Amino acid sequence: MTDDVKRSFIDGDGSDITPEEANRRLAQIKENGISASTSGMHEYSHYSFADACNTARPKKYLIAGHVQASALHMTYGEPASGKTFLVIDKAATIACEEISTWQGRHVNHGQVVYFAGEASEGVKIRCAGWATERGINPDNVKMTIFDEVFNLDDENDTEHQLEDTISNIEVYAPNPVYVVIDTLHAFMNGDENQAKDTKAFLAVCRKLIQKFGCAVELIHHVGVSNDAKGRARGSSSWRGAMDIETLVQNESSDDSSITCRITQRKHKDGKKCRPFTVRMNEVVLPDMFDEEGNPVTTLVPEKQETIIYLRNDSQPQPQTPRLTPKELFARKTYKEAAIRHGRISLEGNTGASFIDVGLEQWREVCYELSTADNERKKCDEIGRASCRERV
Predict the structure, then answer these.
(1) How far apart are alpha carbons 160 and 153 in whole angstroms?
(2) Tens digit of each residue's pLDDT (9 = 90 or more) over 1-27
(3) Which are the contacts of 340, defined by CB distance < 8 A and separation ≥ 6?
């Protein structure tokens, strides 16, 4: 059978076919001893429903609930919100086997890659501050920082092709588990507002995930308008592609610290973690001074063994049920009867306790306070009710 005949058998009349049909024809060819490579047909990666059920596994995390392994993440916020301090804290914790938890959450460790696209010198100071505050030897933190800025999605940049990026990672930071791109805008050639350009950049991120099995974290900014403060800037395609999306907001600040509110806005494969706060304290770097002789300082997130969660404003809060007019009248009259006839007992070992008023005493007050026939009807209903009810 010639190649043309085989291709004709697979492609039919040359019209497009579905993957299912292609696989069916491929299987038929294999039964006849003809391989897919011989037929010129690409064999799709596929599995059955039963295979899906039998091989399903729970998602793995680098930081429980917050950094999912082999997933795409975005942390975003306004300028000076503390987002970079937070991500460096996560990255360094993942890269340091001496620290077992991040803000009370279990950590799985590994090599980290950090693409510093903005203020590389500032990143150095923040790393030094983190090691000082945590009391960690910097040599024990497996994090490699690339400070050369380029466009990850620019196919025409011959000096910075994706293949070269992968090769540099393989040489200087083999087998990374966490790759941070700080910031998305610094490494993007296209327009972040256009879905087409967004798709091209996301394709690069997915290739990094596929190559290394790592999590990729994008640091980004929120929109400018008031109604865009709670979402990432640019195309809605960003949000659609993320596995976990985290908003960082500066709640308060003073001369030596800031308090940030951390809110998970999306968690595709799990339950969103409840909002919590992180205080970032000023740290003085030892033996480092600026041109005026002042000590150099930076901020480092305060380490917490247990996360202090906040009320989730996005969840409906339980409302206290409103009392009906009948219930309001019953409460009013019972209170009055208790004032007139109730007694305090000092007997026993439980301390002072209130002795209930009798039903007749309660009904007496009801009739006295009633002003119309309908109120008297309420008194009768109270009389028929259980006197165990408390108002």
Answers:
(1) 9
(2) 455 655 565 555 555 666 777 777 767
(3) 357, 361, 365
Question: Is the bond preceding 183 in cis, omega lying within 30 degrees of 0?
Answer: yes
**What is the gyration radius of the CA atoms in the chain, in angstroms?**
33
User: What is the spatial distance between Cα 263 and Cα 240, in angstroms, rounded to a whole number?
Assistant: 17
Q: At what angle do helices 83-95 and 120-134 cross, to 10 degrees?
A: 60
HEC secondary structure over 213-269: CCEEEEEEEECCCHHHCCCECCCCHHHHHCCEEEEEEEEEECCCEEEEEEEEEEECC
| CA 301 from centroid of its chain's CA atoms | 17
Summarised one tens digit per residue, pLDDT across range 102-121 is 998 999 999 999 999 877 78
DSSP state of 358: P
Quickly count: other Cβ atoms within 10 Å of residue 277's Cβ. Answer: 17
pTM for the model stands at 0.69
To the nearest whole number, what is the mean pLDDT of the chain?
A: 83
Task: Give the tokens for residue 16.
Answer: 């497009």
Q: Which structure tokens are listed for 52?
A: 């899906």
